């Protein structure tokens, strides 16, 4: 799931942070990644990186709320076109947060995007947190 470029960036960040985090990272890896896993620690960081962008979060939110969505619908909703939209969709797909399939819509083959189970599991608590924070803010204003 992790691209070579993103892994290199993360390795560079880790080198910059020095040994101070090595004990913490070792503890984290021992506690969560000691046994068999489908995704690595780096894969999880990539998922968080992917959704931490406003356009990609919006795409995930739209897919969460609306379900299967065509490329054109995402284009209209995000005001991103061509390579800009493709970049965000590719990033989300690489992180395993969305899936793409081809379906016939109105007699034409179209790309249909869906939120993966992993994407649902990641965005749902984030949406709940945003809603809860709004509710709490209303109580204190």
UniProtKB/TrEMBL annotation:
One of its GO terms (molecular function) is DNA-binding transcription factor activity. Residues 1-10 have a biased composition (Basic and acidic residues). Residues 46-124 form the HTH arsR-type domain. Residues 1-21 are annotated as: Disordered. This is Transcriptional regulator, MarR family protein. The lineage of its organism: Archaea, Methanobacteriati, Methanobacteriota, Stenosarchaea group, Halobacteria.
